[in-house]
Amino acid sequence: MIDMIEKEEPIISEEEAAQYDRQIRLWGLDAQKRLRGSRVLLVGLGGLGAEVAKNLILAGVKGLTLLDHEQVTEESCRAQFLVPVTARGQNRAQASLERAQYLNPMVEVRAYPDRPEDKPDDFFLQFDAVCLTGCSRDLMVRVDQLCSQRNIKVFCGDVYGYYGYMFSDLASINPTTTASFCSLKEALEVDWTSEKAKASLKRTPVDYFLLHVLLKFRTDKGRDPDPQSFAEDSQLLRQIRDDVLESLAVSGDLLSDDFVSYCFSEMSPVCAVVGGVLGQEVVKALSQRDAPHRNFFFFDGRKGNGVVDYFGPN
Amino acid sequence: MVQLVGSLRKELADSLSSCRVLVVGAGGIGCELLKNLVLTGFKNIEVIDLDTIDVSNLNRQFLFQKKHVGKSKAQVAKESALQFCPTANITAYHDSIMNPDYNVEFFRNFMLVMNALDNRAARNHVNRMCLAADIPLIESGTAGYLGQVTVIKKGLTECYECQPKPSQKTFPGCTIRNTPSEPIHCIVWAKYLFNQLFGEEDADQEVSPDTADPEAAWNPEEAAARATASEKDGDIKRVSTKEWARSTGYDSIKLFNKLFKDDIMYLLTMDKLWKKRKAPLPLDWQQLENHALFNEDSPGSGLKDQQVLGIWGYCKLFQHSVETLRSQLEQKGDGAELVWDKDDPPAMDFVTAAANLRMHIFSMNMKSRFDIKSMAGNIIPAIATTNAVIAGLIVLEGLKILSGELESCRSVSSSTANYPEVISLVTYEEPYDELEECQRSPDYFFCTVFDTFP
């Protein structure tokens, strides 16, 4: 049974009030107090992860735990601003800790170097919200299933070159609102063979299918497309695109070859946009203010537009 | 064969490392923008900001820490950015972009100028300089959850001044002086009062009852009679508020009784004003003091600024702030004037007290210092995430410009107005024929339209 004890209402000190002044004027003191009482887990400290970390730490959550098993590479230095250039070879979460803490000493920031796959269920249950970046599809599905049952808010997000997305599962065991959320599993396993689904295909952002392709690449190769292996990765991406669209029973024309050369690495401005939207969604959910995006946000950095859309059982 | 450097095609990455760009402003948008630029691969960046760091900046201007409060924004932003990108070539100017040193030649050094400003005057100025130098400008702004990015290029798009911008809301003098009905009227009155007593006196900022109020007259003849009477009635008009205050030695209780008792009683004689409105209730210092002795205000819990005091609390705050401001004035010497600043505690205390006393007189619920500061200081709420999104969009537009894709540039806005498109594109307006004047002649920095919209 989940913990039903009312959390002690956090006090906002005069020091915090001075620092958070401009945001308290936007979302109010009660919202700030709820943030002040929230603990968040952030998995993955790549470009997107660093942006989300910054946004949540500045917002003034109680604690942010960073979890990442990857090492700092030359690529990481290009992608994110928390890791010192001298930290090559160190664990990415631990290397990001110092700068992350400097952003706001009033937040408890912790870093762990473990693989999220190796963490027991209990680990994830100590948080109010969990945010997964750079994770495999299987891990995201597992953590989402585990956490949403316990009323822990789940967010996922990634940036692939010029493209990015975020997903949220705010399903509550006591839903008070009419808007509902579904699991990531359900969101990804939409049946496109039904008449209704086929009819809605025209209005469906192709980014949804692109996401499937990139998640499959990540599962198959254990990494994301790498500029160093551009030729082979491009070919593999095209192949996976064909396979994925076929398995989803949708037209191969939906995703042209064009996307292939634009989904490598993490583009800083795209990380900033997706990280900003994702960060704000986490803040909204923790502060219980303002309508959340249901349940995906897709950003296309080439076109420059970003759209919210719902995918799930009809 | 496509070659990539990170996410970018090699040709684009190469052009980024050689071009020079200018960022105007190192605040909310500026910090995020600087970070995005260096991470994307821009190597030659100049950043200018006249401001220093304040603690209220720290919730979003993430390149700054508590220890930097008081230092130059441009300078600290540069140092922090160099920490995660030591090979970037960043020049910081702690200066105003409106300084004539930054002339058209200066602007011509850059391939791209990006504004990260918070005021219209500077935006107008940079707009004109970029038109004159024929350099693309990316304009942007944020407020709360909303934000917008627009590319401005001579000959291709409207400039920043092509469309008249709404000017700040003003209120009729008689509303401020005679018949306030909303807290903002009382706050504006309190700011006028500050200037009348301690700052630069302005004929448009009168605080005494307006006897020439057309609403006060029962008939046109009476209006005329009142108008002439006010000129003869020295008590109200002839002596300036500052002179009168000086003559009393800025005695806070005398000031209080004049502003919150005598002047209100005068207003009550203009009985037509109160036929359909609730009449104001004058305050008496002595009465309030006596009452307070028996009903001591208990201090509330929680943040000081968010509390609403009792009437006697604001009487005391009025007294205390007048005394502090009086000595500030004395210290500055003869003919000195104070300038109102929301971050100067006695100045803010004064407006809080005076506005609340007036609100109470006019039967409005009094407000906390926090709320009054928002209105008096025109504070725009701001958060990190909106600035992060907008700064990301700025760089994406910048990349299009540097790839020679100006025509594909759009005005982009971040809001829920076009839900479910939360980041949406607006196609450009073509520059109007009659405005081409501004964009062709090197001597005309501004649109001819601007002349007709003062």
From TrEMBL, chain A:
CDD domains, per database record: Aos1_SUMO
Domain of life from the UniProt record: Eukaryota
UniProt cross-references to InterPro entries, sorted A to Z: ThiF/MoeB/HesA (IPR045886), ThiF_NAD_FAD-bd (IPR000594), Ubiquitin-activating_enz (IPR035985)
A GO molecular-function annotation: SUMO activating enzyme activity
GO biological process, one term: protein sumoylation
One cellular component (GO) term of this entry: SUMO activating enzyme complex
Residue ranges of domain THIF-type NAD/FAD binding fold in the record: 20-305
Similarity comment: Belongs to the ubiquitin-activating E1 family.
Protein name according to UniProt: SUMO1 activating enzyme subunit 1
Protein's organism: Myripristis murdjan (pinecone soldierfish)
Classification lineage: Eukaryota, Metazoa, Chordata, Craniata, Vertebrata
Automatic annotation (TrEMBL), chain B:
GO annotations of cellular component type: cytoplasm; SUMO activating enzyme complex
Pfam families: ThiF (PF00899)
Main location: nucleus
Listed GO MF terms: ATP binding; metal ion binding; SUMO activating enzyme activity; transferase activity
Pathway of action: Protein modification; protein sumoylation
Transmembrane segments: none
Localization, UniProt: Nucleus
Compositional bias of kind Low complexity: 214-228
Positions of region (Disordered): 203-234
Entry keyword set: ATP-binding, Metal-binding, Nucleotide-binding, Nucleus, Transferase, Ubl conjugation pathway, Zinc
Any one Gene Ontology BP term: protein sumoylation
Residues annotated as the enzyme's active site: 174 (glycyl thioester intermediate)
THIF-type NAD/FAD binding fold domain ranges (all copies): 8-408
Homology family: Belongs to the ubiquitin-activating E1 family.
Protein name in UniProt: Ubiquitin-like modifier activating enzyme 2
Organism in which the protein naturally occurs: Myripristis murdjan (pinecone soldierfish)
Lineage of source species: Eukaryota, Metazoa, Chordata, Craniata, Vertebrata
Gene field: UBA2
